[in-house]
Amino acid sequence: MAGRGCGCGCGSGHLNEDNARFLLLAALIVLYLLGGAAVFSALELAHELQAKQRWEERLANFSRRHGLSRDELRDFLRHYEEAAEAGIRVDSARQRWDFTGAFYFVGTVVSTIGFGMTTPATVGGKIFLIFYGLIGCASTILFFNLFLERLITVIAYIMKSCHQRQLRSRRALPQESLKNAGRGEADSLAGWKPSVYYVMLILCVASLLISCCASAMYTSVEGWSYFDSLYFCFVAFSTIGFGDLVSSQNAQYDSQGLYRFANFVFILMGVCCIYSLFNVISILIKQSVNWILRKMDGRCRQQCQSGLSRSRRNVVMPGHVQSRCNISIETDGVMESDTDGRRPSGEMISMKDFLAANKVSLAVLQKQLSETANGCPHQASTLSRDNNEFSGGVGAFAIMNNRLAETSGDR
Questions:
Q1: Crossing angle between the packed helical segments 256-311 and 17-66, to the nearest 10 degrees
Q2: Domain at 147-168+195-306: CATH code
Q3: Share of residues in the chain with pLDDT > 90 (%)
Q4: Where do the Potassium channel domain residues begin and end (predicted)?
């Protein structure tokens, strides 16, 4: 690929494949951030300026009507801002640091939502939050990973069962011939894997269903519009947590205990589903980045081959010089023919040439020994690993990839 070293000299300064993928993804994220900033600035800046102008006019009218100076009025408003940061509101609101309010707060901490409407004000509370959040966030992320592992297992099992039923319905075999068709069906399912697009579709439907049900509840209980409720669900379930809309903050509700329990359940289920969906989308992003790198690699190879063909018209090249580019340690030596690197009998080979000729064998042997020692046998070759849409990943990404691969090959 584009990040691998080029054997013909044109790509001697190229980065390796992982670094190329990292840099390309970083560049795409920067472009994504710049585009998002431009869109939000175009949408929201005019509204902000209009709101500021209306506030200045209202402040001037109030100061003129009551005979107050602008400085006195601003000092009073600063005091109210300090009270608002401590949880004091004009309308009646529940106490933020009673047991139920504190439980809601720690839930937003360990889930990394962090709405910001409640924050510790004492030094002891801030110090305790550092250690509490360190352990709580790590434990919750572990819980999300385990939830993701089991969710992918269930989805893969259901999808494979549906695939088996489709195969049986297509054959429409009688009962006495099912035993004879069992082996053929097992062979057809041996290499079957659940499509990442189907997994993403199922997670999208589940997330949308939870969000719609939660939005209906928030609309009727909190008095928000349905669109604002959907907006709150995404902000909360994705753990962004702006804090402009926060549920369960009023002092009293009808069926208050039931509502707070339902609110907790919806947020927990929504965070788990959106967390899983983000990891599936990250697979598609990785595939897109790999596709871009393959396109770039194809152009580089064409340029290398065209450059070599022009240079070889009037030059006699040694037999051991390789005529290909972008061959990494994973494929170097595998694509070579038996004649490449062959020396006349009696010619001495240097240690450098020996290591270069055997670097693939040494690397593969070392990897196999490591996998055998760790109890993880080698399941796929290096060349086929890039074609697996569930390969690679770190953290929850790796958990989901491994679970998809395992469940697809269990039965």
A1: 140
A2: 1.10.287.70
A3: 31
A4: 93-151, 208-285
CA distance 120 to 302: 61
Least confident of 169-178, 181-190, 228-237: 181-190
Residues 6+ apart with CB under 8 A from 177: none
DSSP three-state, residue 194: coil
Give me the helices (H) in 191-321, please. Answer: 196-222, 226-237, 256-311
Neighbours of 54 (CB within 10 A): 10
Given this model, what pLDDT does residue 386 score? 45
For 372-381, the CB contacts below 8 A with 24+ separation are: 379/405
Residues 299-351 pLDDT 10s: 878 777 777 666 555 444 444 444 444 433 333 433 444 444 444 444 444 54
63-67, 284-288, 331-335, 374-378: which is most confident? 284-288
**Token pair in block for residue 337:** 């023919």
Residues of the chain with CATH 1.10.287.70: 147-168+195-306
For residue 59, the 8-state DSSP code is H
Structure tokens at 315: 């030059």
Name the region of 114 (left: φ>0; alpha: ψ -120 to 50; beta: rest). left
Location of structure tokens 């949408």: 43
Check if the beta carbon of residue 106 is closer than 8 Å to that of residue 132: yes
Three-class DSSP category at 82: helix
- Smallest Cα–Cα separation from 396: which of 181, 141, 191? 141
341: Cα separation from own chain's centroid: 44
Q: Which residues contact 74 (CB under 8 A, 6 or more apart)?
A: none
Q: Name residue 233's amino acid.
A: C
* Token couple for 96: 């933020």
Hunting for tokens 């790590």 — which residue is that? 138
**Global pTM?**
0.67
